[in-house]
Write a structure and sequence with these properties.
This protein is an alpha/beta fold. The protein is built from 14 helices and 21 strands. A hairpin with a 2-residue loop joins strand 20 (about 475-480) and strand 21 (about 480-485).
């Protein structure tokens, strides 16, 4: 049966369950293509159009395995958008306290560009941190008093103090960190992972996105977890708080699971009948549609189970913090990330906005750490206790750092900091990472990198390496050339690895 040939669909064919019509009126004259397009409404067609796309049916990743044995199987990336200040968190600079209120030396700035928010300031007074630092763990990692729970994991984490980027504003900087390019349209890191390696659980998406609810700050656009020029099925699937974590996935009123199952079986029968007739050898697009509906059907069971916390004991909620019982909060998303890891989700992206503290930084960053510190540390501890940390990589960081000088007026107990791409800090924990260490150093002002710079492309190359992927060999041909996550750059930072 050719696509343009007409299929007669009778009411009786799709009657099931309680005798309810499952989406069609009386006998209709439809082409095969129209039939498959119309069939999906109510089965998550809208969800699938954004999560899976109209592409050939998926199986394993295009690599058919890894280039080398990987140290990890999955990634949890806690992205704190807005630019967390490295000076208040992980890059202790006592010299700034000594020079508090004096001018930033030109010998430090070296004529580097500033944003328009501070470029016109007549004065750039240095601002020392309001918070104390202590050494923790056997490795002596210096960690701020703002993150006491993370400090208890000092021997499990590797702090990178020498991250740098070219992007100085949020939009390009966040896009750069997520996709390896400052310009929209490139696939996100999670999409590349899914494309290369596929999924470990056929009942759940390989790439899941969790955004903290109710947070202000810079907007987080869906292109940040998009598939770019890769087939659309590789883009991240956003889980939301509430009874429907994935939009449009539930059955409409009057359609139950048995009716849906029968409809899928009849659809498969129609497709197979066309092949047996010898008039069709198999249409990849139609097969993809059927595979997508099957996945949606499986997700109707698997996603509610994965997002149901009722089986979690009290001590787990105590460990993650009181907000962990409130779906959509950062703490609840951290707990959900652990549950998704247990179920084989390959790449989990958490977004927590609100770190853009141009003013009122001491109070603002204290509040942000209250929201994130306990749950972030609990996630690492929980994974370690369950034996999952050894093959899971946990990443914490933002898109750039903050300036050592104050934006606006420097007050005795208050100050703000502008965007600073020249250096910033991140931390990692898990499989293949040298815990209890610090990598890279900045100058006494946390303005320039003094040793061991790590570019975004280097970070991406290192993450892929831990997954067993050669970043130069995971490519996709688009507009006449081969593209990759690291563009034409990137080096694996072997000194970060155990």
């Amino acid at each position: 049966m050719r696509d343009e040939e007409v299929v007669t669909v009778t009411h009786a064919t799709f009657s099931a369950g309680r005798g309810t019509c499952t989406g069609f009126d009386h006998p209709a004259q439809l082409t095969r293509q129209q039939f498959l397009q119309n069939f999906g409404m109510g089965l998550g067609a809208l969800a699938l159009s954004s999560t899976l796309g109209d592409q050939p049916a998926r199986g394993d990743g295009v690599l058919g395995g890894t280039h080398r044995p990987g140290r990890i199987k999955r990634v949890i990336y806690m992205f704190n958008s807005g630019g967390p200040s490295q000076i208040e968190l992980f890059d202790h600079k006592p010299e700034l306290k000594r020079l508090h209120g004096t001018e930033l030396p030109e010998s430090v700035r070296k004529g580097q560009r500033l944003t328009t928010m501070t470029g016109s300031q007549s004065s750039l007074p240095l601002a020392g941190s309001s918070f104390a630092f202590k050494r923790h763990g056997d490795g002596g990692n210096e960690i701020s008093e703002l993150t006491p729970h993370l400090a208890g994991l000092a021997d499990d984490i590797c702090i990178i103090r020498s991250m740098h980027t070219e992007a100085i504003n949020h939009g390009p900087a966040v896009t750069y960190m997520q996709t390896g390019s400052q310009f929209p349209g490139r696939p996100s890191m999670g999409a590349w992972m899914d494309y290369g390696l596929g999924t470990e659980n056929s009942n759940l998406p390989a790439f899941v996105v969790l955004v903290t609810k109710g947070k202000g700050g810079q907007p987080l656009l869906s292109r940040l977890w998009g598939s770019g020029f890769l087939p659309s099925r590789y883009q991240g699937v956003r889980f939301r708080s509430g009874k429907d974590p994935v939009l449009y996935l539930t059955n409409p009123n009057g359609v139950d699971a048995s009716a849906r199952r029968l409809m899928l079986d009849r659809l498969r029968d129609l497709q197979q009948a066309g092949g047996r007739s010898g008039k069709q050898t198999g249409d990849p697009l139609l097969e993809a549609r059927i595979a997508q509906y099957e996945l949606a059907f499986r997700m109707q069971r698997s996603i509610p189970e994965a997002t149901d916390f009722s089986s979690e004991p009290k001590h787990i909620f105590d460990e993650y913090g009181k907000d962990s019982k409130n779906p959509g909060t950062y703490a609840a998303n951290c707990l959900l990330a652990r549950r998704l890891v247990e179920r084989g989700v390959r790449f989990i992206q958490l977004y927590h906005p609100g770190w853009d503290q141009h003013g009122g930084l001491p109070g603002g960053i204290r509040n942000q750490c209250r929201e994130t510190d306990q749950a972030s540390a609990a996630l690492v501890t929980d994974l370690k206790r369950r034996g999952l940390l050894e093959d899971t990589l946990v990443i914490w960081g933002g898109e750039f750092g903050r300036t050592s000088y104050c934006q606006g007026k420097l007050a005795p107990n208050n100050y703000g900091r502008d965007h600073h791409p020249r250096c910033f800090s991140m931390w990692m924990a898990g499989g293949g990472v040298r815990g209890g260490t610090t990598y890279g150093q900045t100058d006494p002002f946390s303005y320039n990198i003094a040793e061991n710079p790590v570019h975004i492309h280097d970070l991406h190359a290192t993450i892929l390496h831990l997954m067993g992927i050669d970043h130069e060999r995971l490519t996709f041909k688009y507009q006449g050339r081969q593209f990759r996550l690291t563009d034409v750059h990137g080096n694996v930072i072997h000194d970060l690895l155990a």
